[in-house]
Amino acid sequence: MSTVKSKKLQVGTDATSSNNFTIYQPATPDGTLRIGVGNADSPTEVGRFNSNGYVATNAPAFSATKPNDQNISAGVWTKVIFDTERFDTDSCYDNTTNYRFTPTVAGYYHVDIELLFAASSGAGAYGITIYKNGSQYISAYRYAGGVTYGASGNVTGLVYCNGTTDYIEAYGLYTGTSPQFDASTTQNNFSAHLVRAV
Q1: For residue 176, is it left (φ>0), alpha (ψ between -120 and 50) or beta?
Q2: Distance separating alpha carbons of residues 110 and 12, to the nearest angstrom
Q3: How do residues 32-81 score in pLDDT, each as one tens digit?
Q4: Strand locations in the chain, DSSP E?
Q5: If we measure between CA atoms, which residue out of 14, 16, 22 comes closest to residue 39?
Q6: Hey, CA dihedral for 88, 137, 146, 176, is it positive or negative?
Q7: CA distances from 145 to 127, 139, 148, 175 (A)
Q8: Which domains does the chain have, with CATH numbers?
């Protein structure tokens, strides 16, 4: 029986390093085996194994909420200001300016939006939609008969993003007098996570 001890094993000898892979341990072993794109001298980590199995290291995910009221115009699609992050694994969600998710890995993302509405009076017709690149992509609508001053709803869907320019935003609309997206840290949620990279 023989043992070969090495911290890095390059698979592939292509002249273009990005066509090669390297299997390696980190400089200070921590119980993980890393997989990197590139040559053994400078691989870029794309995944790792630990005692529980494979763990992807670049899988964008975020969750945000909105603890403040947001006044809106009745029946007009309006971007929801989700300005409080719970987490943002790869810094892909902008919670200060554009309130959008721009993932840096190409693939299919599960997106979920929950929203709480209120109005001083009037019927509660509402809509919630996932916007992709500034256009409606997946929407949900509801009309509550009679007089309803408050409502909540959600929309969810699978969205492909190219990992560079594609972005996702949350929009809503509500009818009635003085409508708003109502304040709530539990009933207002905007989240997404990578389901499958391509």
Answers
A1: left
A2: 34
A3: 888 889 898 888 877 788 888 776 667 899 999 999 999 999 999 999 99
A4: 8-11, 21-24, 33-37, 44-50, 53-56, 61-65, 70-71, 78-79, 84-88, 107-118, 124-132, 135-144, 150-161, 168-174, 180-181, 189-197
A5: 22
A6: positive
A7: 15, 20, 8, 12
A8: 8-56 (no CATH), 61-197 (2.60.120.40)
pLDDT by residue (tens digit) across 79-124? 999 999 999 999 999 999 999 999 999 999 999 999 999 888 776 6
Tokens 């001083």 map to which residue?
120
Q: Which amino acid, one-letter code, is at 138? A: I
> pLDDT value at position 123?
65
